[in-house]
Structure formats: structure tokens, C-alpha cells
Amino acid sequence: MKLASVLRVLVAALLLSIHGCSTVSTQQVPTPVVEQGQPLSAQQPAIKYQAPGYEPAPGTTTAVATNKQTPAVVALLQQAERQANDGDLESAAASLERAIRIDPRNAVLWHHLATVRLSQGEPMQAEQLASKSNSLAPGNYAQQSRNWLLIAQARRQLHNAAGAAAAEQRARELGAR
Amino acid sequence: MLLAILLAGYIVYLDFQVRQQFTGKRWSLPARVYARPLELYTGLELNAEQFVTELQALHYRPVLSPREAGQFSRNKNELHLISRPFDFWDGQQAPANVRVTFSAGKLAGLTDASSGRALSLLRLDPVLVGSFYPAHNEDRVLLQLDEVPVSLTDALIVIEDRDFFSHHGISPAAIARALYANIRAGGVVQGGSTLTQQLVKNFFLSSERSLTRKLNEAIMSLLLEWHYDKDEILEAYLNEVYLGQDGNRAIHGFGLASYFYFERPLAELSIDQMALLVAMVKGPSYYNPRRHPERATARRNLVLDVMAGLELITTEESARAKARKLGVSDYQRKAINTFPAFLDLVRRQLQRDYRDEDITSEGLSIFTTLDPQVQWQLEHMLGSRLDGLERERGMNAGTLQGAAVVTSVQGGEVLALAGGRDPAFAGFNRALDAHRQVGSLLKPAVYLTALEQPQHYTLATLLDDSPLTFTARNGVVWKPGNYDRKNHGNVPLYQALAHSYNVSTARLGLDLGIEPIIKTLRRLGVEQQLNPYPSLVLGAVEMSPLQVTHMYQTFAGGGFRTPLRAINAVLAADKTPLQRYQLSVQSAIEPAANYLINTAMRFAMREGTGRSIYQSLPASQDVAGKTGTTDDLRDSWFAGFTGDRLGVVWIGRDDNKSTGLTGSSGALRVWRDLFTRFNNPGWVQPAVEGVEYHWIDPKSGSLADAGCQDAIQLPFITGSGPQQQAPCVKEKQALPDPVDWFKELFQ
């Protein structure tokens, strides 16, 4: 993949995340119908013993779950976007790392860091970071779908066509959920 | 004729020397090591006291109303400050005039002081925590001419070399004046040296007073002026001049002197402070303001008078400046490095990428991950808890030693590190170099190996804790026993780990085989030699606290291995980026299996060997962790993590004798002291996909329902829940569907 097109995708993704939209126009991901951060009370089993077995509603502990980024994180995302636009990818990565320090379980930030690494020609690390993003986005199929698309690109850079196709398939399935 | 040729040859030789050395002059600049910069934003966990501590470490000055960078004022929970500009890896942070308010342990508001507009984020300049010096101990803060206040260069020139801008390196008028004065006094009382000559003397020559040296000095000064312009010479002088001594560290240049005497950058000095530095040029020892304040004051005032006489400042300014105290900070013979144990780690990580001489002489700026707030707390808590343990147990003071590491859970950044109970001691670094048996800290690797085979093992699987005698092929007999000397029959797997039962763990380890457990340890990032003996499963392996931290980092990071980093970035002396140490992750354990092992370690905190943690932590605080105790109570370990921080603590003795402490009566209490000070929101590992919950009867390990006594909910890897129903389920019913929140959520 050409650097310029990776950058375009990156910038588009950053822009979208900043504006709270949950689709990526350049990629074939259907608009998800789920909203994050729904309360769970209706389905939650009665808890008689609040031991470690008891869990909170999934995804309620991060800002991304409510699709709301804190102003500090938004500022750093915007800065990362500017830096990526200027071709200063390592500074963009540094800004994203700063954002991760502030909101470490924000799957969106890990996804963008993966995107930057991919643009920097580090497909292996990009795939790992995208997997990390997946692990932080349980139930957020739209985010997972974006991560799998990125993993597909990373695998293609590594000349792993079969792996890339499988990742794309996964992205489609998740996108359709 | 011959003489002329010889002289010409000599001059050519000197010329070569001058150009060679001046052009190629590279001051060896020590590396500066910085803590992480404090990022201010609404919601940050920080109270006003902690913030002020940080500002003090940055040498911000409390004033009534801040007017310049590096000043702040405080009114209870509201602070007003002007931050300093700073060159970071990713560009310069501009100064900002801001108001910061705190409420309930958090930063509640960050606004621009002039416009009142809310700011999203401000990065302060980072605390300087140490330097790496070259062997000859020269220190400098290199300045460019345009960074030096004009008042200072003006004062310097009028005092030391009034004709500087007009002479050609030597000043006959000055020499005549000095000669006259010296003859009248009958000895050398006044120098006629120009700044150029002084520089040449410092640069190229010895300090002996001989005619040859004087001659060389004069020739070289002329040559220097021939080749270089005044600004270059002045800049070199400002950086070279000797201005004091700090133990065996020589203070060179106005940049460093400003920090050494006033603890602030040159640009922030007042006119009287600049005058004092200029006054000291004549004799930094004789006019040492800390040792001889009267002499220093008299000469400073002389400088101010001369400045007023030449109308560089007004008479009123001069009078006001002369009325001021010297304003020199208290001399503290500081250990050069505030946090020697952490700096030791930094240096070792640097040595992988840089030669030693580059580290000490190339003027690198090293941005570390150190969080001074956490480091201060850790040092305090470790020291006071060890004191307390010794008192409690009637031990001689100083018997116990300890070490600890604190990291960020997702980024693997080392936030704090203690290499012993005396934080100022720069010797043996136990966090890195004390390799001790880890005991039960190893058990999670055994249980994880089991849980990764969901068709065979779940958290509810009953393990046999009855007495075990194992005879190895070589005939060696192994009879592990439990710490409480009891056997507990059949126990569910999660309880065997939570209570750290040795016998059931040993049996589980033998069933699994040692090789798969070693493979698991490798995936967790354990790199040292591991002997494939059965005793390995009970922790017969020696690790340093840092290595243990690396292993637990993977659990805390949701199954992703993260290299521990003490450095974020390195800048060259000219502030160009040299290297970044990137955040990177490597998937090592399936998140679902990792979730199960973390759940078992959370049970260890709620019900098992770590439950005393909740004597001071609120019940809402989610913690996962494991205690470790070795034979004869030699080592007391605890490794535990919350949603955002991981801490590993070791307590032992340098002579490796018994401490009388278990993991929970020793190390865990240090951890608890420390983590009680943090506000750790959130869960150890929020829910993951591929896990479902079932009600379980812990006695039988079978399915229960909410009505069963003692029934608990346990997570299982999807599809691995037990098939049998416990007797307590009153009406046999069709097996209930497992709880799958994700499906429910997104159906």
C-alpha cells in the first residue's frame, strides 16, 4: 500500500473518531446499529455475592464505551491528525501514546496507533496493536471490524494473502452484526 | 631571518591549534534525565498539595501574583501559574498562563488566566531527576548567545573587558592600566586580560603565570579574534567561565551557575542576581556567596554601581537591586541524582543503544517514564513500613531490606522503582540485581497453563489437595506440604490458587507436565534459565523484582506482553530527536484465558492469602494479585495490580536469612500502604469476549442456581461450563443458558 493512501485512511479515521462517527467511509463497513454503554440492569442476573465473579456491564469503564472522548484526548487526537497530515508519523504516534497514557483502555486510540505503525511500515506491530484494540472493545463490533480491516492490510504488506483474506472476512462478519 | 621563520612557523602551529580546538570544541555535556512531564487536564487524579510538590520540584517560585514563567500563586485549591517553555521530543511546549482548580482529589478546572477560556491539556516542563556525568565531572548548561539576557552580557563586558567590542584580542590600554596598578601595589593585583585572553587561558593553556604563557596567550587571542567574530567568542566565554565548585563537580558557564546558585534558568534571574554572577567571575571561591556573603554582596553592589554609572540601569534600579538579599538558594550537597535506583535502570536501558561516552558527554536529554508522585510515595511507604515491621517484630533496625517496582498496566512504563530502603543510596540495586526465589508468585503460570485447556480445566475444576509423594525417575522423593500444614481434600481450582495451596498445585503441575509450564513462562516474558524439575511449579526459580514485574505485566495487560520501558525518548544536545522508545505490545495469552487467571487472582485478594488488603482498601477497589513466601520465610513477595497500576514488592535480608515474614505479612503491606494512596478506578480486566458466567456450587464444582447456598458466579471460556447440576438445585431442570452479556447486549 502506498504511503499516501494509508495516510488518507488514517486521517479519515482520525477525523471520524474525533467527530464521534462510527463508520469509516473509505471501507466497506455497514453502519452498526448498536450503541455502546447500554445499561445492563434488565438482563443482569440477581447478584447475591459480590465476589470477583461479579462483573460490571461490559465496556462501561472506558470513555470510548459511551462514544465520548475527553477534551484532553480529543486535543491529542487532533494533534496526532495534524502531525500525520504533515507526514510526521513518529510525532503522531507520540501524541497517541500520550493519549493512551490518559485513557489507556480506549480502543480507538490503540486502533489509531496501529494505523500509524502500519503507515510507518511496521505491519507486525500494527497487527498486534489492532489486536490489543480488539481486546479493549468487547461487543463493539464496528470497532473490531475496523481493526480487522487494518489487520488485513498489515498481512497484505507481509505478503500473507490468505491471512489477509481471512481478516477481511472477519471484518465483514463483524460489520454485519 | 631564521628567527623570523621559526616565529612564523610557531604562529602557524598556534593558529592550527586555535582553529582546530575552537571550531571542533565540543564541550562534553552530561546527559540530563527528566521525569515524565506532568500533563494537566480536567479529571486528572491529583490534589493541590501534590501539584505544589511537583511545582517545587520544578523550582517554580511562589509569588503573590505570577508575572513570569516559573512562578505560581496558590489560594487553597486554586493555583495560578505561568509555565515554562520546554523542548520536547515532539516539539516545543509554549509557556502558558493558567489557573488550575482542584476538587475531591482531582483536577477540576484548567483555564487560560487571561481569557478565562477552558483549556483541554497542558504539558508542564519535566522535573530534572539527574544527570550522567563524564569522568572529569565538568558540568554545564549550554547556552546560545540569544538565550543570555542582554543585561548580563552588558554587565560582564563593563566589568571584565570594557573594550571587548573594539579590541583585537588584547587590550594595550587595559594592560597599561593593570601594569600601573601592579607596580603601585608592588605585586599582581589586577589583570589586564580581555575576555578573549581569559577564554584562551581556560581553553588552551595551563594556569601557570609565566612570560611564555602570557606570550602564547596574547598570540592565540589575536588569532582567535582573527578567525572568529565577537559573538562566537562571547558565547564560548559565557559557557566556559568557571563559576564554582560543588564537591568534585566543577560549575562551568552562566547557564549552570544560574541553577547552582538560584535553582532557576538564567532567563528568570533578576538584575541583582545577574550582577552577582558577574561579580563572581573574578574569583568564584573568594566571592562565593554561600561562604562569604559580605564579600559577595560588596562586589555585587560594585557591579551594580558600575552598571548605573554607565546608565545600563537607572540609579533607582541599582538602589533597589542593592537593597535585595543575595537570594542564593540553600546549598544542599545533593546526591547528584535524586533517584539513583531508577537512574540505574535508565542507564542500563541506554547502554543497549549508546556508548558510555555518548551518554556522559553528548548532552543528551533523556525523557523517562518516572512519575515523581509515585516514586516519592513508594520511597516513603517502603521505608516506613520496614521500620514498622522491625519494631513490631523486635528486630534490629536495618535488618530488613526491600525493593519494589511500579508500572503502568497498559503501557508497561516504569513509574517508580526502589532498589532498597534508603532511596538516596546509589549502590546495590535490589530491584534489578537481587535474584531471589519467587515461591508462589510462579503459581499463576501453572494455573494459566491449565485454564488454557478449557476442555480439561476450568476455575470450578476440583483439584486434589490430599497428601502427595512424588518419586522422580532418579529416585528423588518430593513431598510438598501446605503452608498451614493441612490438606484440604478436593478444592475448586480458583480456591487452590487463591489460598496458594502447594499440594494441589504440585499435583496439577505434575499432571500438566513441566515443559508446558515452562512454555507458558516463556510467553509471559520470563527469560532466565529454568530447570525442568517438579519444584519449579512451587517457585524454585530465582528472579529479580523487575523480572517478576515483567511476568505480571502480561496478566495485567490483558494477555499482551509489553516490554517494560523506563525511557520514552532521547533528544540530542541541539534538541533534535534521536530516538523514541515506542509503546509496543505482543499478544501472549488469549484474553479469555487471561481473564480467568485474573479472576482467580482477584479471588486471592477477596478470599485468599491477600484478603488483608481490604483492611485499608475500599471494597469497591478491584485488585488481582498473588503473595509469595519462600522456605524459612526468607523472601516475602507480593505482586498485584489494579486497572491502571502494577506493583511488585519484595522484602528480604541481604544475608538471605529468615525475615519471619510471609508474603501477606510483609510485602503485601507495603503494596497496600502504597496503593491506598492511589485512586484506582475501574476493573482489573473489564469483560472480554469468549467468556460466559455460570452459577457454581464451590463444594462440588457443579452447576448451581442463584438459590443455592454459597453459590457463586464464575467465568468460563464459552462452552466449557460444567454439565452436572449440584444437589442443591431443587428441581432438576433443563440446563440454564449461560449468561452471555454480549449477546444480550447486542441482540
Oligomer: heterodimer
Q: What's the total number of strands of chain B?
A: 33
**Structural domain tally of chain A:** 1
Mean pLDDT of chain B: 90
Question: What's the SSE pattern of chain A?
Answer: HHHHHHH
Question: Do you know the CATH topology of the domain at 134-323 in chain B?
Answer: Penicillin binding protein transpeptidase fold
Q: What helical percentage do the residues of chain A reach?
A: 55-70%
CATH-scheme architecture of chain A: Alpha Horseshoe
Q: Which residue ranges of chain B are poorly predicted, with pLDDT under 50 across at least 5 consecutive positions?
A: none
Largest sheet of chain A: none
Describe this entry's structure for a reader.
The complex is a heterodimer of chains A (177) and B (747). With 177 residues, chain A is mainly alpha-helical. Chain A has a single domain, classed as Serine Threonine Protein Phosphatase 5, Tetratricopeptide repeat (Alpha Horseshoe). Helix content of chain A is 59%, strand content 0%. Chain A is built from 7 helices and no strands. Chain A has helices spanning 3-18, 71-85, 89-102, 107-119, 123-135, 141-157, 161-176. In chain A, helix 4 packs parallel to helix 6. The longest helix of chain A has 17 residues, at 141-157. Chain B has 747 residues and is of the alpha+beta class. Among the domains of chain B are: 37-125, Penicillin-binding protein 1b domain (Penicillin-binding protein 1b fold), CATH 3.30.2060; 134-323, Penicillin binding protein transpeptidase fold (Orthogonal Bundle); 691-746, no CATH class. Helices cover 35% and strands 18% of the residues of chain B. Chain B contains 23 helices and 33 strands. Chain B has a 5-stranded mixed sheet. A 5-stranded mixed sheet of chain B has the order 3-4-5-8-9, with helices on one face. Chain B has a 5-stranded antiparallel sheet with strand order 17-16-30-29-28, sandwiched between helices. In chain B, strand 8 (97-103) and strand 9 form a beta hairpin. Chain B starts with a helix and ends with a helix. At the A-B interface, helix 2, helix 3 and helix 5 of A face strand 27, helix 21, strand 33 and helix 23 of B.
